């Protein structure tokens, strides 16, 4: 829990250091939070660390610089800090696994939640095979049951909406309740994406959108994997 809270401090606009050796997860596992542009701070001992890779380094120097920073993640803590020389193990940060039964129930619940945005759900790109998509069709039926049990109004979603909601839910996307406009977020990498930025399932359905306008063509589809940040387990 604390680890996730620390990872959440690494925002896209304040964490520009793109290296898997000093990813937000790695820094957070060593106790650091991101307080300002590429600046790390330890809340326990107040030590600070600048993680901005200098522009003028050649490749070899950059590798060495990153290696040194990776060591400092442990050594830069002040004496007496519990993080000095220690880190959470890497398996602390992983997709929370549940039994398959629970997972199915949860996914259906998340999907039913997402269906509140029916009509605004994005057209999705996803890596599933035809066989796996076939399995999803069984899940759709269960989603309808879950939706009925938690909502009074009947579900008026098209198949494409249910499919989109199901894929979002499966790949870790949940409704972002902190946003005033429809948005989804990932609870592991804290990426939040406004749904209005993406092509909706309506736009990509020519039968329902005869006069496809320019703006809908320039919007991209929602790739359920690529929209996560690089270090995310999804
Ligand atoms: Zn410390
Ligand atoms: Zn993610």
Automatic annotation (TrEMBL):
Residues 165-234 form the NuBaID C-terminal domain. The keyword Translocase does not apply. Coiled coil: none annotated. Residues 1-124 form the C3HC-type domain. The keyword Phosphoprotein does not apply. GO terms for cellular component: nucleus. It comes from the Eukaryota. It holds the Pfam family NuBaID_C. Keywords: Metal-binding, Nucleus, Zinc, Zinc-finger. It is found in: Nucleus. Transmembrane segments: none annotated. One of its GO terms (molecular function) is zinc ion binding. This is Zf-C3HC-domain-containing protein. The lineage of its organism: Eukaryota, Fungi, Fungi incertae sedis, Zoopagomycota, Kickxellomycotina.
